[in-house]
TrEMBL record, chain A:
<feature type="transmembrane region" description="Helical">
    <location>
        <begin position="66"/>
        <end position="93"/>
    </location>
</feature>
<dbReference type="InterPro" id="IPR000515">
    <property type="entry name" value="MetI-like"/>
</dbReference>
<comment type="function">
    <text>Part of the ABC transporter complex CysAWTP (TC 3.A.1.6.1) involved in sulfate/thiosulfate import. Probably responsible for the translocation of the substrate across the membrane.</text>
</comment>
<protein>
    <recommendedName>
        <fullName>Sulfate transport system permease protein CysW</fullName>
    </recommendedName>
</protein>
<keyword id="KW-1003">Cell membrane</keyword>
<feature type="domain" description="ABC transmembrane type-1">
    <location>
        <begin position="70"/>
        <end position="271"/>
    </location>
</feature>
<keyword id="KW-0472">Membrane</keyword>
<keyword id="KW-0813">Transport</keyword>
<dbReference type="InterPro" id="IPR035906">
    <property type="entry name" value="MetI-like_sf"/>
</dbReference>
TrEMBL record, chain B:
<feature type="signal peptide">
    <location>
        <begin position="1"/>
        <end position="22"/>
    </location>
</feature>
<dbReference type="Pfam" id="PF13531">
    <property type="entry name" value="SBP_bac_11"/>
</dbReference>
<dbReference type="GO" id="GO:1901681">
    <property type="term" value="F:sulfur compound binding"/>
</dbReference>
<keyword id="KW-0574">Periplasm</keyword>
<dbReference type="InterPro" id="IPR005669">
    <property type="entry name" value="Thiosulph/SO4-bd"/>
</dbReference>
<dbReference type="InterPro" id="IPR034408">
    <property type="entry name" value="Sulphate/thiosulphate_BS"/>
</dbReference>
<dbReference type="GO" id="GO:0042597">
    <property type="term" value="C:periplasmic space"/>
</dbReference>
<keyword id="KW-0732">Signal</keyword>
<dbReference type="GO" id="GO:0140104">
    <property type="term" value="F:molecular carrier activity"/>
</dbReference>
Length: 290, 332
């Protein structure tokens, strides 16, 4: 398979040799756009962060407010990602294994957070749980704080990350159909056994890919979280919000140091994504060959 | 149990255990340019509180555009004290949120304003466009940077300072409105807060002149060194009075009234006044003011009460929906 795909284009290129410059310009353009819009900013973040030396870099990262922001960001990820996995699997299951009315509406609604601006997502929670909001008085009476506290930040993160796992799983599970599950049931498996031994192994890599995307978004979310955060230093600032605060305080080195911490986390996630993506492709190809 | 799993658990534990809440905490919700002031004042107050035998206190800070911060407190941000850019924003806490009584401003000395400031111009070194007074700002080709008066308290002081000068210069409200309309036509970016505008002007090098809090202008000069920028003091400006208040409904719920009151009172102490002056706010205390007299240029200052009959009249007239600002900015 792979040897074929390399060998196949060769004769075409040879035949169209005069047009090769077109290909080269396109590739060159793609690379220069990539270098200018992606690579250059990354390099700038790192050079700004390290311009005052490694010592300043690490002291900015290990400063208590930065650690508190890291802790809050990881907490938001740790809560929102598992919940999204649950929701994503359930939604994808519904959509791919059952036929019911309003299915296409459900699929469309899952995508809503992609199209709604994060600021609106944040404001919706303020309107629901803020002191002037729908549940405001009740929450106040029971001394429960959602907005401008950790629960609000988790909710906002959840909202913007809802589609990731479901979006990844729906096409995968639809492609796989229900045959294997039906076979499992016929052979006497319980519902749980069927799910655990047939469905999960089949969707494993898609699930991991969705989780990786979801984690990346949860860590980086700025808009929705900014609206519900209240910006209390060391308490309700996530890493992206902390970067903005440091920048606004003329503290460029610290801002870019913390930014490069976010960047490092993002790179780890990117590698995970690449890895799970290649696994999915291999799985699909082996499936196709069977 | 593998070592790896143990290490992971230990790491997770270290990350997620919240600090023991032994110390009292106080949340000060403030506006944009006071970051440096309250950083210094908070540690001074914590020492003062401890020296009185009241134990440790942790002061949490939140900063942002003044109007936005007031909105957050109304929406449920549990501030013990607010230290905002203008009385109009704190009035909203009473009007919309019933968080404080109507007479909040008479509860502390000097109309609850422990320090004042004014509005000055920050220009590029050498003042290449020759901007000396408000009249020069509407010359063709001059770009003016100021934040959005809808969200920023500093921007409202900027607006009113410009209005006050034009009214004195040209003699009528109509002429003043013409001048201010032209002024806002020359604003390329409206940021949401004073700090955003400063960054736009100083770091992103957009615009020829920044209308800024005096303290913000001094701070920008200090941070960026004196070789890129200079301050121009106009012939007339406004006495900007950023007031402070205890948020009654919140301190009663949290039981922090004594702490919150002591915190604000300490702003009026000699130590508090000196910290304010060091951070380029004009102190109220006569003795401290004399110490720092050389730092602050002398200029004619109108007051919000004298020239505009107070915020209760100025806020709806100029900045509410459909007010003067909306009219002139829509025309643009």
């Amino acid at each position: 398979m792979s040897s074929l795909s390399v060998a196949a284009p060769l004769p075409t290129v040879a035949r169209q040799a005069p047009k090769q410059w077109g290909r080269l310009t396109l590739i060159g353009a793609a690379w220069s756009v990539f270098a200018f819009f992606l690579l250059l900013p990354l390099v700038i973040v790192l050079t700004e962060a390290l311009q005052a030396g490694v010592g300043t870099f690490f002291s900015a990262i290990f400063e208590p407010d930065a650690l508190a922001a890291l802790r809050l960001t990881l907490l938001a990820v740790a809560i929102s990602v598992p919940l999204n996995v649950l929701f994503g699997v359930a939604a994808a299951w519904c959509v791919s294994k059952y036929e019911f009315r309003g299915k296409s509406i459900l699929v469309t609604l899952i995508d809503l957070p992609f199209s709604v601006s994060p600021v609106i997502a944040g404001l919706v929670y303020v309107l629901l749980f803020g002191a002037q909001g729908l549940f405001g008085e009740w929450l106040l009476e029971h001394d429960i704080q959602i907005i401008f506290a950790v629960p609000g930040i988790v909710l906002a993160t959840l909202f913007v990350t809802v589609p990731f796992v479901a979006r990844e799983l729906i096409p995968l599970m639809q492609e796989q159909g229900t045959q294997e599950e039906e076979a499992a049931r016929l052979l006497g498996a319980s519902g749980w056994q069927m799910f655990w031994h047939v469905t999960v192994p089949n969707i494993r890599w898609g699930l991991i890919y969705g989780v990786v995307l979801c984690t990346a978004r949860a860590m980086g979310e700025f808009g929705a979280v900014s609206v519900v955060s209240g910006h209390i230093r060391g308490l309700t600032n996530t890493l992206p919000l902390h970067v903005e605060i440091l920048y606004n305080e003329y503290n460029h080195v610290a801002a870019f140091s913390v930014a490069s911490l976010l960047l490092a986390l993002a790179l780890v996630i990117l590698l995970l994504k690449q890895w799970s993506e290649s696994r999915i492709n291999r799985l699909r190809h082996s499936g196709a060959e069977e | 149990m593998s070592i790896r799993r143990f290490a992971f658990a230990a790491l997770a534990g270290a990350l997620f255990t919240t600090q023991a809440l032994a110390a009292d905490t106080l949340l000060n919700v403030s506006y944009d340019p006071t970051r440096e002031l309250y950083q210094e004042f908070n540690s001074a107050f914590a020492q003062h509180w401890k020296a009185q035998g009241k134990g440790d206190v942790t002061i949490q800070q939140s900063h942002g555009g003044s109007g936005k911060q007031a909105r957050s407190v109304i929406d449920g941000l549990r501030a013990d004290v607010v230290t905002l850019a203008l009385a109009g924003d704190i009035d909203e806490l009473h009007r919309l949120g019933k968080l404080i009584p109507a007479d909040w401003q008479s509860r502390l000395p000097d109309a609850s304003t422990p320090y004042t400031s004014t509005i000055v111009f920050l220009v590029r070194k050498g003042n290449p466009k020759g901007l000396k007074d408000w009249g020069d700002l509407v010359k063709p080709g001059v770009e003016v940077i100021t934040p959005n008066p809808k969200t920023s308290g500093g921007a409202r002081w900027n607006f009113l300072a410009a209005w006050a000068w034009a009214k004195k210069q040209y003699g009528s409200d109509e002429k003043a409105q013409e001048y201010v309309t032209q002024l806002y036509k020359q604003v390329p970016v409206l940021d949401t807060g004073a700090r955003g505008s400063t960054i736009t002007f100083v770091n992103n090098r957009i615009g020829d002149v920044l209308l800024a809090w005096e303290n913000e202008a001094f701070l920008a000069l200090k941070e960026e060194g004196g070789d890129a920028l200079e301050i121009v003091v106009p012939s007339l400006s406004i006495l900007a009075e950023p007031p402070v208040a205890v948020v009654d409904r919140n301190v009663e719920r949290k039981g922090t009234r004594e702490l919150a009151t002591a915190y604000l009172n300490h702003l009026y102490s000699e130590e508090g006044q000196r910290i304010a002056a060091k951070n380029f706010y004009r102190p109220r205390n006569a003795k401290v003011a004399a110490e720092f007299a050389e730092q602050f240029p002398q200029l004619e200052l109108v007051t919000i009460d004298g020239a505009f009959n107070g915020w209760k009249e100025a806020q709806p007239k100029f900045f509410s929906d459909g007010g003067v600002f909306d009219q002139i900015y829509q025309a643009h």
